[in-house]
Amino acid sequence: MNITVPTLLLDQEKCRRNIHKMAAKADQNNVKLRPHFKTHQSWQVGEWFREAGVDRITVSSLRMAEYFASHGWTDIMVAFPANILEMERINRLAATIKLHLVAVNSETIEALAQGLLHPVYTWLKIDTGYHRTGILPTDHGHISLTLESIKQSVNLYFSGFLAHDGHTYKQTEKAAVQAIHNTTVSALQELQTKYKPHFPDLKLSLGDTPSCSMLDDLSGVDEIRPGNYVFYDLTQQHIGSCTFDEIAVCMACPVVAIHPERNEIILYGGSVHFSKDVLPQADGSLCFGRIVELTESGWTAPKEGIMLVSLSQEHGIVKASDAELAKYKIGDLLYVLPVHSCLTADAMRGYTTLEGEQLEHLSGLLK
Amino acid sequence: MNITVPTLLLDQEKCRRNIHKMAAKADQNNVKLRPHFKTHQSWQVGEWFREAGVDRITVSSLRMAEYFASHGWTDIMVAFPANILEMERINRLAATIKLHLVAVNSETIEALAQGLLHPVYTWLKIDTGYHRTGILPTDHGHISLTLESIKQSVNLYFSGFLAHDGHTYKQTEKAAVQAIHNTTVSALQELQTKYKPHFPDLKLSLGDTPSCSMLDDLSGVDEIRPGNYVFYDLTQQHIGSCTFDEIAVCMACPVVAIHPERNEIILYGGSVHFSKDVLPQADGSLCFGRIVELTESGWTAPKEGIMLVSLSQEHGIVKASDAELAKYKIGDLLYVLPVHSCLTADAMRGYTTLEGEQLEHLSGLLK
After folding, report:
1. Among A152, B150, B166, B180, which lies 20 to 30 A Cα-Cα from B273?
2. Which of residues 29-58 of A touch B (CB under 8 A)?
3. The complex's ipTM?
4. What would the pLDDT profile of B28-49 be if each residue is shown by its tens digit?
């Protein structure tokens, strides 16, 4: 492999292992797995999920739904509040695949009921504590009103209640993640009990990467939707979702300058490559990536005494101990585990496997 | 215009005004303008610079240099420490255009001297206080060593000393920016005096957007390289480089949810659209964008009582007063001035002018 510019490496073996592990866990728990594909956004990586038995997926935009539909996926949920301005796109997709949309209010339901030409599977998003969006589980007035609108619409089919526990990302203890998960499952189950008489088939959908990775018991819902686990990253390792060894992507960045007087290495690799997500350290310092070394079959665990500590648009600044600094020279490649693999993959727009194969990312295609 | 997804609007008139104002200022100061094109990365916007008399440009990568070379630019500086791993690309470019590279150490100079097949204009980057990279102006040993290597090389031509005062971005007072600028100019001039006997044609190149926008006297150097001023943004307005009225780009984002109980509007528009740069406010709160209203000929100044306060991957959260909240409904578009236009343009990969024309961004092309 001849790497000359910032490049996102993908360890296919680790990635496939992550994919199969979660599929096995879903099976054991007797829940359907509807993985979120926004992390990888690659039809090739998608095929590895198919090999693991996955037949339904989650995406975060209609464009992403179109992309994966064009690669043979026929059961796709867009897990973002339905954007009624894209009605044409919704109708085009709904004509050809089993399209699932998420509504967070009755206004959206009414607009969909008016504009839809084909059946759409509709989930109500419940705000179970993250407080980004969704209807509160106690707001039975709004929920009933919305379900009534769905019932009267020709093309809306009520699939069930959905939640996203984004607040698990702030945790670092399994017990805390478990507590959040239990609270959410019980809130969703209460709603299920209440509305099942009117919608006997209603399902429950849940599942962020921390809870799906850290918890053993994922029963009590019908499907789970983790996404980041395909690659994991330093944020997930910090939470406790994965080991360093399960992180399946790594940036290769050219060394363009070394400043021994302040123990700094300057990389070609900045916020347009990594994105700007940061992992604050216990001592208050900021981590934008951890440094590894390549091995014959992949890469090592992160090294001590060397860390990516700052990013500007194209520059990365690595702080290194004398011993680590001495190992690098200008023109070398330095390998960095990313803080947030979803955003890094989106910024890098493609992957290079350890075998040298180029894999596509939707954001690398023409708009 | 039928906007249905997050879209970056470009006010062509404002943008052209920004371009012409800086060109006139350079003329008055009798310095050459070599604008940095990394902010817009668009051949169409490049043409507006050409109309303003610009014939030399700055970029931040060899790929960007290739792009603008393919659009007729023949005098291009890559203002990033030369990446010796890209020697093939350097040689391809140097064969066809006047290519300027930046070196920050003698190792790079030696590698270039060995690998170059065509003449390259070489600038030494001096660290005048930003301390990201560059050679300290007092490090005459390293500078002399490097210049000696350049002199002995066949294909390296020494153009002069270059600096980037990135620390002006932390200022908000003209006097502070003036002090930084004066210090840098005087450091560069000392080097010029010292090395002019050996390199009679050596030039000085300087110039970030804050100093080039805020200061009247830009004399004392040979060329200036501001870039962000083509669009400006909230960061530059905060520094004092521009008025709100000079910000030439604005995001249009669909409203997908409204939460009156906590005065929040949820936008389709997150960190994959805006990037994650933030502008901390005086009261400690975080600003990810300010809200404007469209007018017949562009947009208003930012409104009070409403602000983009949080971004996740695809969601934006806007906090709004009761009065502002009451103005919006689901399916509306909300217009947001960005915190950092370079990163937002890079993430958005293209522009829509107020006249509805689509303009290209390099990052929207196939890799």
Report:
1. B166
2. 38
3. 0.94
4. 999 999 999 999 999 999 999 9
